Structures
1.
Amino acid sequence: MTTVTAVGLAVLDFVFGVDTGPERGRKVFASSLTEAGGGPAATAAVTVAALGGTARFVGRIGDDTVGDRIVEDFAGWHVDTGRLRRIPGVPSPLSSVVVEPDGERTIVNYTDPRLHAPTDIVTADDLRGADVVLADLRWPTGGLSALAAAAELGLPSIVDFDETPEQGLVEALETPTHIVFSAPALAALSNTGDPTAGLESINRRTDAWVAVTLGSRGVLWIDDGVVVHTPAYDVNTVDTLGAGDVFHGAFALGLGEGRPIREIVQRAAATAALKCERFGGRAGIPTLAEVETFMKEYAR
C-alpha cells in the first residue's frame, strides 16, 4: 500500500452555510453548521486515507481541547499522527468558514506564531517508510526541512504552493520534484495574471514538474516544455472548502502509486470535483470507489 507523509498545518474548522453572503457590520444567521478538521497538508493526508492509501501527518498543534479534536478527527480517518507535535501552552489552529450558496468559501483563521518554531525541523527519521512526501508552506521550517529530507532519501516530493513564502523561496522552487500552485500564488510569484505565462515563467526557474489549479477552469501543467490543460469536471458545486487540498492529496497518492502523470492529474481533478458537490469541507471527501464510479459515469 502506498504511504504518503504530509507535513504542514492542521486546523479545526467550523463551517457555516449561509443563504446570503455576510455584509460588514451585520448579523448573519447560518442555515447549517459542520465541525471538521482542516488545513492544507492535513486535509491532503485525509484524502490519501479516504482513497485507500496509508497516510501520515507531521505538524505542530497545541496541547488543548481543540488539538484533541484535531487528533480525534485524524483517528477517524485512520491517519497516523505518531510524529505530530503537541505544544504545551499554545492554542491549536482554528478557523471559522462561511460557505455561500454558490459554494464559495471565506475563511478566518488563527494560527499562533509560536507553532511556526524555526528550530523544530522534519528529519529523514520522520519520513522513513514513506513513498512520497507532501508539504504545505504554512509551517515554513517544517515544510522546507521535509522537502530537504525527502531529497536526502531520494523520495518524490510535492509542494502545495498556496502562498508566496517570506522565507525559503529558493528551496521551495528547487528542492521538490513537483510543485502545484494555486492561481493567486502563481500570479504573485510570476508577476502576471495570465496562468499560462506564469507557469512558463516559473518553469524556467525550476527543474520540478509544475502545475496550477484554476478551480472551475481546470488545471494547467507542463509536459516536456508544453503547457497542457486538464478541464475541470462539471459538477453541482456546493462547497469549495478544501478542494485544492483534496486535489493535492489525490495527486500525491497517484504519484506514489506510479501512475502516468496525465492520469494522476485527471484523477486528482475528479476527486476534488466530487468533494465540491458536498458540504462540510473535509467531510465531503469521496472514497476511491466513488471516484472510480464518477469517472466511469462521466466518461459515458
2.
Amino acid sequence: MIISTKKLRVVFIICSMLLSAQIIKAQFKLDVETGVVVTGYNDVRIPGSTGTFISFPDDLGSSPGLFARITFGYKFGEGSEILALYAPLTVKYEGEIDSDVEFFGKTFPSATPILATYKFNSYRATYRYNLLCRENINIALGLTIKVRDAFIGLQQGNLDAKKTDFGAVPLINFGVYWQPADNIGVTLEGDALAAHSGRAEDVLLAFNYDVSDIITLKAGYRILEGGADIEKLYTFSMFHYGVIGAVVNLPTR
C-alpha cells in the first residue's frame, strides 16, 4: 500500500501534536514560604532515662522567629510529581532554671543563665501520584524520604554540650487541593507517620489565589510536630507557622 505525501503530513502533524501535549504536561514548580514560627512546646531529656527533663519555652523562654522553606517540583505524565524540599529551622531559648540540669553527661548549675539551641533542618525527597483528578479537586498520595540534620545544645559560660542527630525516615505524603472558584483554592498537604518510639507531622492548610496561570499566592497555617522517646534521648516538640508564600509553575515549553 502506497501512502501519499499528504497523508504522511497529516500523520506527522497528529504525532507532533500528541508529543507536544505530553511535553506540555511536564511542568516545573518552585514553592517558596516564609513567615513567623512560634514554639508550642519543646520538651527534652538527654539521655532519655537519666537526663533532666527541660521544657525550653516554659523553663527558659522563647520569642517568635522568622523562617523560610523552599520546594522544587516536577510534574510529569498523567499525575506524577517529584518534590525536593529544604526546610531549615533553628530556635534559641534563654533563661535560668531553678535546679541543676543533667544534660548529655554534663551538669549545668542552677540559677545561672543558660542558652539552648534547637536545630532541625529537614531535607526531603517525595514522589506522589494524583489518585483523584477532577475539574475542581485533586487528591494525591505518595512517599517521602526525610533526612534530618539536627542538634540540641546547651551553653552556660564556658560549659557546653551538644547532642547531634543525623538520619533518614520514611513518611507518608498526602495532598488535597480544592478550587471552589476560578482564582481561589484551598490546600491541605503534608508528611506524617507514627511508630512506637516516635512520630512526625508536617501539615499545611492554606488559601490560594491565582494571580496568573504561572503564579499562585498562598497564606495559611502550618504545624510541625513530632519527636522520639528512646534510651539515648527524649525529645518532643511542636511549632506553629504563620505562612505566606508563592508558587511558580513553569511548563517545560
3.
Amino acid sequence: MFAGLRASFITGLVVIAPIGLTIWLMWSFVGWVDGLVLQFVPEKFQPRNYIGVDVRGVGAVIFLIFTVFVGWMAKGMIGRSLIHMGERFVERMPVVRSVYNGLKQIAETVFAQSETSFDKACLVEYPRKGIWAIAFISTSAKGEIRARIPRDEDIESVFLPTTPNPTSGFLLFVPRKDLILLDMSVEDAAKLVISAGLVYPGKPNDDQPMLPLPGEEAAPGQGRTARSE
C-alpha cells in the first residue's frame, strides 16, 4: 500500500512540479517588471488611483507597448540615425563601450528574428574513434577556415553540445563523410542531450531493420530488429 502511495505521489509531483514552477516563474517575472516599470509612471497615473488596488501585470503591459513603440521607431530613418549617433557616443567611453557591446551581442543572439538555426542532427565520433556523440550541423565551412583545412572534400561546421547544458559545447569542423545524419529533429536530439540519454524521441519500430551489434550475426537478408521496451 505504501509503495503504491509513494508511486502515486511521485507521479503527481512530476505532473504538478513543471506546471507550478512555470506559473510561479511567470508570476514572479511579471511582478518584477511591474516593480521596475511602475516606479517611472507618475503618481497620478498609477492604476491604484483608479481601481483602488495594484493590479499585477499593468507594468508588463506598459513595458510591452513601450518596447513595440521603440522597435517601430528604430525601423525608421530617424530612429536608425539616433541609434547610430548614440552608439558612436558610447564607443568613446572605454568601460561603457565594452559592457554595451557585450550586452548588445547577447541580445541580438537571443532575440534575433532570423531563421538561422541548426540544419540537422547527426552523430560524430568524439572524443575518439568508436565513441559516438550527438552533434548539430550548423553550416558548411567557409572562408579562411575552409581554405586552411587540407582536405579536398566537403567540411561541415558542427556544434557538439555538452550534457545536461546544451548551451555550452565545442565547435568542430568535420568532413561530411564522417558524419551520420539522423532522422530525428533538432528539438528531439536536444531533448536526448539534456536528459543524458533518458528521453528518446518516439518509440522504436519493431519491424524496422537495424544493423547487427558487434559480435552478432544477422540472418541473410535480414537485420537486427528493434527491441521494444
